[in-house]
Amino acid sequence: MNAVLHLAAVTRVHGEGAAEVHALRGVTFRAHPGELVAVMGPSGSGKSTLLTLAGGLDAPTSGSVWIEGTDLASLDNAGRARMRRTSVGYVFQDFNLIPALTAAENVALPRELDGEKGRVARRLALAALEEVGIVDLADRFPDEMSGGQQQRVAIARAIVGDRRLILADEPTGALDTDTGEEILRLLRARCDAGAAGVMVTHEARHAAWADRVVFLRDGVVVDETGVDEPDELLESAR
Amino acid sequence: MSIRQAMLAILEQGPMYGYQLRAEFEQRTGETWPLNIGQVYTTLTRLERDGLVEVVGHGGADETDEAADAGSDRQHVSYRATEAGRGEVSEWFATPVPRTQPPRDELAIKLALAVTLPGVDVGTIIQRQRTATMASLQDYTRLKRSGRAARPEEPADLAWSLVLDALVFDAEAEVRWLDHCEARLRRAATERTDVRRDAPAASTTEGAAR
C-alpha cells in the first residue's frame, strides 16, 4: 500500500441519541503520491469532516486513518501532533496566517515547533517561498500582502520541510478567478512533484484541476471521476 | 448557430478558397468546431446567392494540394465579401447574440421528461451526468494548463485559451445546475413525505414552508 493518505471504512458520528448525526458513513478513500484529489458535495455531505480526519485533527468513530503507512490511532497526542507538523500541510480558505509574524516567520513556524534551529528553519522557509514565487515578500507582514500573496504564504507553510500530504479546504474561496487559478497551479505543481493533495471545493471549475473528483453526499461517496487501478479495485472490494 | 457570419467575417480580410476559409476558421477558434468542407461550400453558395460574397477568380498557381486533389471546379474558386457582406459583418459584431430562442438542450429535455414520466430514476441520471460533465471539465482544464493555451504567444493562442474558458464555464454551469436540480428534487421529495405524514391534520402550506 503506497497511498500517502488512506481512510479505511471511516465513520464519524457527532452527538448521541436523537441528536446523532452521521457525518461520514464507511468512507474508504486514498490519495497517492503525485495525485491531486478533489472532494465535492453539498453542505453537510461530510467533506470538511473528511479533511479534518485526514489531518488527524479529529478521530473517526470507527474505521482507521493511515498517513504514510502509520495508523493515526496507534499514536498518542504528541505523536499525532508531530505527524501533523512533519507530514501534513493544511491550506485554509481564510489563509490562517499569524498577523504578528512576517511571511518567512509564518512559514518557518512549523519547522521551529518541530525543533529545527531558527537559521535552518528560515532557510527552509525561504526555499518554500521561492517555490511559490514570492521569496521577495519574505519580510512582509500578512496585512501588507494581497489575498493571493497570503494564500501563497499559506501554501509555502503547508509544503515547508517536504511534507507529502497537502490538505486544502476551499483554498480559492476568498480569491478572484485569476488568483484562484494561480493557487491551483501551485497545488497542482506540488502534486506533480510527488506530494498527495486533497482539496475540498464546491466549485466544479476548481475541482477540474484534480486527477480525481470524489462526490460525497450524506457522508457516503456516491461517485467519482477517474478510474482506480484494477488491483486497487480488487483491494477495496475485499 | 450558423457559421455564415463567421465565414463572412473572415472573408472580409481578403479573398479565399473554401479550404483556406475552413483552415482560417479552425485556426482562429482552436479547432474546437471542425467544419465539413461541404458545409463551407454550401454556405458560400448561399452567401453568393444573397449577394454577400462574390467570386473573384478561378484557380491559381498557389492553390493548396488539398484543393487540387479535390478536383472539382468549385474548389478552384475564390470568394470575397461584397459591400453588403461587409455591412452584415459589422452588424453581426455590433449585435449581441440573442438568447430568446434557447438552443435545444438535450440534457434539460431529458431531465424534464425524467421528472414527469413514471419509472425513471432522476437522481441516478443527475449523478451520472454530473460525473461525466466533471470528467469533461477535467479534460478542458488539462488542455488549459498545458500547451499553447497556458502560455499564449500569439492572438490565435489567446483565442484558443478563451474558447477553452467558454467550454469550462459552460460545463461548470451545467454542474451547478445539476446540483441545483438535485437539491430541488430532494426538497420536493421531503415535502411530499412530510405532507403525507402530517395529513390530514397539517395543511400543505405548512409542509411546503419547511
Automatic annotation (TrEMBL), chain A:
<keyword id="KW-0067">ATP-binding</keyword>
<dbReference type="InterPro" id="IPR003439">
    <property type="entry name" value="ABC_transporter-like_ATP-bd"/>
</dbReference>
<dbReference type="Pfam" id="PF00005">
    <property type="entry name" value="ABC_tran"/>
</dbReference>
<dbReference type="InterPro" id="IPR003593">
    <property type="entry name" value="AAA+_ATPase"/>
</dbReference>
<dbReference type="InterPro" id="IPR017871">
    <property type="entry name" value="ABC_transporter-like_CS"/>
</dbReference>
<dbReference type="InterPro" id="IPR027417">
    <property type="entry name" value="P-loop_NTPase"/>
</dbReference>
<keyword id="KW-0813">Transport</keyword>
<dbReference type="InterPro" id="IPR017911">
    <property type="entry name" value="MacB-like_ATP-bd"/>
</dbReference>
<feature type="domain" description="ABC transporter">
    <location>
        <begin position="5"/>
        <end position="237"/>
    </location>
</feature>
<keyword id="KW-0547">Nucleotide-binding</keyword>
<protein>
    <submittedName>
        <fullName>ABC transporter ATP-binding protein</fullName>
    </submittedName>
</protein>
<dbReference type="GO" id="GO:0005524">
    <property type="term" value="F:ATP binding"/>
</dbReference>
<dbReference type="InterPro" id="IPR015854">
    <property type="entry name" value="ABC_transpr_LolD-like"/>
</dbReference>
TrEMBL record, chain B:
<dbReference type="InterPro" id="IPR005149">
    <property type="entry name" value="Tscrpt_reg_PadR_N"/>
</dbReference>
<dbReference type="InterPro" id="IPR036388">
    <property type="entry name" value="WH-like_DNA-bd_sf"/>
</dbReference>
<feature type="domain" description="Transcription regulator PadR C-terminal">
    <location>
        <begin position="104"/>
        <end position="186"/>
    </location>
</feature>
<dbReference type="InterPro" id="IPR018309">
    <property type="entry name" value="Tscrpt_reg_PadR_C"/>
</dbReference>
<feature type="compositionally biased region" description="Basic and acidic residues">
    <location>
        <begin position="189"/>
        <end position="199"/>
    </location>
</feature>
<dbReference type="Pfam" id="PF10400">
    <property type="entry name" value="Vir_act_alpha_C"/>
</dbReference>
<feature type="domain" description="Transcription regulator PadR N-terminal">
    <location>
        <begin position="7"/>
        <end position="89"/>
    </location>
</feature>
<dbReference type="InterPro" id="IPR036390">
    <property type="entry name" value="WH_DNA-bd_sf"/>
</dbReference>
<protein>
    <submittedName>
        <fullName>PadR family transcriptional regulator</fullName>
    </submittedName>
</protein>
<dbReference type="Pfam" id="PF03551">
    <property type="entry name" value="PadR"/>
</dbReference>
<feature type="region of interest" description="Disordered">
    <location>
        <begin position="189"/>
        <end position="210"/>
    </location>
</feature>
